[in-house]
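Budget justification aside, the reviewers requested a transparent look at the raw inputs and outputs of the sequence design task funded under Objective 1. We therefore reproduce one unedited record. The lines immediately below are the structure tokens for a 179-residue chain.
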């Protein structure tokens, strides 16, 4: 079943283009999240006090591309930390799933948020309806948000790698222009 869902997500996960554009205000939010298997409340407002935030949306924990993306973000966390940048992934999964995903696939390196009611996903125009499954999921969209709460970068791509590369590039470019 997971293989079928992965194929479906690969085909439809970018059906919606990123709705927010660079320069737009990023909607503020707090969300139940997990990192290293432990629950906490992630607050965008609080995270932005420490530097830029990469907010990435993904369709479903433990599917192939979502797992690959989590692995790649985990591998890049030292680079993001060197840029004083926080990362959070968000999907429509429940906190119980995110608790496990944060440990197994995010390798305890960054948090994942549980947005089962799709409030954050919809606020960022990252929801898509999958008629075959009869459900709503998060599109694969990533945003880089400046400490001032503005969108720096928005990427919609069905693959995993472009999100990490684009986010790192956007943060580096923003830091260079902020000097």
């Amino acid at each position: 079943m997971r293989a079928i869902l992965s194929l479906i997500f690969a085909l439809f996960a970018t059906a919606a283009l990123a709705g927010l554009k660079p320069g737009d205000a990023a909607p503020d939010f707090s969300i139940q999240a997990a990192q290293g298997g432990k629950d906490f409340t992630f607050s965008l407002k609080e995270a932005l006090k420490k530097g830029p935030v990469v907010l990435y949306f993904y369709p479903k924990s433990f599917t192939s591309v979502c797992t690959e993306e989590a692995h790649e973000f985990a591998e890049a966390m030292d680079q993001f930390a060197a840029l004083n940048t926080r990362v959070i992934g968000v999907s429509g999964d429940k906190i119980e799933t995110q608790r496990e995903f944060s440990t197994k696939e995010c390798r305890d390196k960054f948090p994942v948020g549980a947005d089962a009611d799709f409030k954050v996903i919809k606020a960022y125009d990252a929801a898509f309806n999958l008629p075959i499954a009869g459900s709503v999921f998060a599109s694969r969209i990533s945003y880089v948000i400046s400490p001032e709460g503005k969108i720096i970068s928005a990427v919609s791509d069905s693959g995993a790698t472009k999100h990490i590369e684009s986010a790192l590039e956007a943060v580096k470019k923003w830091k260079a222009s902020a000097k």
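The helical segments are 2-12, 44-48, 64-82, 95-104, 119-123, 161-178. The domain at 2-178 is CATH 3.40.30.10 (Glutaredoxin). Computational costs for records of this kind are itemized in the attached budget.
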